[in-house]
């Protein structure tokens, strides 16, 4: 995917924040959030998009039974609320800070449309981003519908490798330092937390992974498969 989408793993805040544009620099600001603060709720008016200067944001929704479903965890440099660009009037998800030092740049949708109209390169970057986000969601949906839990988990690990992984030179392992809880991962791959815990322990016994609260280590054989 990185070969097709130059916009992946790019700091969107640095590229898109209005303070980079002379006409808008003086009239835009930043909002600060602490852990568990909501940026917006389901059914709120979709009249802004948001760029993350610092911190982490959880995107999700609640089922009719009140169960929280996490769609994504976003961090520094990323954008959310982007469906407002395409005409969404009401939010169908919530956005919540999961960091005590989250700083957000809100951008009114009219301002964003003005920037897109006046700057063709800027507009192209926005649409590239939207395409990438949709492509990732489609891939995750296909996995949930057609693949078993183990495959979904390993594919999600491959995605995490792209965003958070680095090589451990001595062992050949791939280390993933990520922001997700087991509950978040279970929700993202369409299984229960208990089933995920069983699966991860099985993979640990098979010497495929090691893990703790903040880190998953893909052992050499699996890391080599991901690299190929």
From TrEMBL:
Residues 12-91 form the Cyclic nucleotide-binding domain. GO terms for molecular function: DNA binding; DNA-binding transcription factor activity. It comes from the Bacteria. Keywords: DNA-binding, Transcription, Transcription regulation. SUPFAM superfamilies: cAMP-binding domain-like, Winged helix' DNA-binding domain. It holds the Pfam family cNMP_binding. Residues 147-222 form the HTH crp-type domain. GO terms for cellular component: cytosol. InterPro entries: cNMP-bd_dom, cNMP-bd_dom_sf, Env_Response_Regulators, HTH_CRP, RmlC-like_jellyroll, WH_DNA-bd_sf. This is Transcriptional regulator. It comes from Polaribacter reichenbachii.
